[in-house]
Amino acid sequence: MSERKKWVWWDEAQKKWVGLDVPDFAATKPPTAKARPTAIGLDALAGTDPFIMKTDGRGWLFVPTGLVDGPLPAHYEPAESPVKNLLYKQQSSPVYKYWKRDDNALAAPGDSRFPIVITTYRLTSTTSRAR
Fold first, then answer.
1. How many CB atoms lie within 10 A of CB 49?
2. Sign, Cα dihedral of 18, 19, 25, 30
3. Residue 29's CB: how many other CB atoms inside 10 A?
4. pLDDT per residue over 7-47, tens digit each?
5. Under 8 Å CB-to-CB from 1, ≥6 apart: which residues?
6. What is the model's pTM?
7. Residues linked to residue 18 through DSSP beta bridges, in sequence order
């Protein structure tokens, strides 16, 4: 394990997971805890299976089915961003819905009339399109 890259780790003295993030699993379940295959919920996962959003308790880089634009999350700029998307040729999310109208044109990326983006979105997310 790289000491420089560790994010969440087991602290034996405190008997809990600690670090720079909040664990996505039972904070007091030690890494030595064995999985109970007949159990349900978190009891079915071992102490080394921290990804509770996945049925097998493990992180996935590649998924078995459904992902069209992966394997890694993509970054898209907002529809009226003051900057060009430096990561991809695709400026905005391909699933963004916009109804083109002459009286409601989108500002082009970098339009000097609009140097700031303000949004009411409470959360940000990546876009994954399922089949």
1. 19
2. negative
3. 20
4. 888 999 999 989 887 777 788 999 999 988 888 877 888 88
5. 9
6. 0.42
7. 9
Helix H, strand E, coil C: the string for the chain is CCCCCCCEEEECCCCEEEECCCCCCCCCCCCCCCCCCCCCHHHHCCCCCCCCCCCCCCCCCCCCCCECCCCCCCCCCCCCCCCCCCCCCCCCCCCCCCCCCCCCCCCCCCCCCCCCCCCCCCCCCCCCCEC
Q: Are 9 and 19 in contact (CB under 8 A)?
A: yes
Angle at 63 (CA atoms; ends 62, 68), nearest 5 degrees: 95
Residue that is written with structure tokens 């039972």 in the block: 26
Measured between alpha carbons, how far is 111 from 107 in angstroms, rounded to an integer?
6
State the CB neighbour count (10 A cutoff) for residue 17.
Answer: 22
pLDDT at 72: 66
Identify whether the C-beta of residue 35 lies closer than 8 Å to the C-beta of residue 48: no
pLDDT digits (tens, 9 = 90+) for 108-122: 888 888 877 676 665
